[in-house]
Amino acid sequence: MGKGFWLGLLVAGGGVWWFTRTVASGLGVHDPAGPCLGDLLAVVGAAAVAGYMLLVEDLQRAQGTGRVVAWTYSTAAAATWLFLPLLPSAGGLLPQAPLAWLSVLGMAALPQLVGHTTLNWCLRHFSAGVVGAATLLEPVFAAALAWPVFHEPITPARAAAGLVVLAGVWLAISSPRRA
Fold first, then answer.
1. Is 140 helix (H, G, I), strand (E, B) or coil?
2. Which listed residue, of 98, 116, 153, 169, carries a Cα 20 to 30 Å from 55's Cα?
């Protein structure tokens, strides 16, 4: 990846930071653990996803999306169930009502099966860097959907931050690749 890619990521990352700060301050969110813990966990999660994308990029082309996600999702589910007893409130983590189970299935079907499988499919056609850069658009598109669905307004500060994210991602994915 060339300098334009990294500059684009820097711009988009700054835009995401501004966008999420604008959203949090606009909602009056207060995190008793401090904002740094959530930020740290987000960075760790992003690093894990980046590592995953780099690891499976070649597998996608060789094995296909279906096989890769079948192994990935099965392994993730098994690991989750293995660590469940280690949590202090393991008994309270399982849904008790049928409607709650329906919510869990809905979250598994849309974000996981559709969203993450689409990201995996994209790795067959684009580099991990391009796919990773495109994921920075998620908060911007989520806010755009929240406006008509939940009547959550987009403030001028959020709109400006969203434009910075869009510009940064465009710069990252449109910059010439280094040989």
1. helix
2. 169
92-120 b/e with 16+ CB inside 10 Å = b? eeeeeeeeeeeeeeeeeeeeeeeebbebb
Q: 117-140: per-residue pLDDT in tens?
A: 999 999 998 999 999 999 999 889
The percent of residues above 70 in pLDDT, for the chain, comes to 87
Q: What is the 3-state secondary structure (H, E, C) of 61-98?
A: HHHCHHHHHHHHHHHHHHHHHHHHHHCCCHHHCCCCCH
Long-range contacts of 132-136 (CB under 8 A, 24+ apart): 132/49, 132/50, 132/53, 133/5, 133/8, 133/9, 133/12, 133/169, 133/172, 133/173, 134/169, 134/173, 135/49, 136/9, 136/12, 136/13, 136/15, 136/16, 136/165, 136/168, 136/169
CA separation for the pair 127, 131 (Å, rounded)? 6
Rounded distance between C-alpha atoms, residue 100 and residue 105, angstroms: 9
Answer yes or no: are the C-beta atoms of 154 and 143 closer than 8 Å: yes
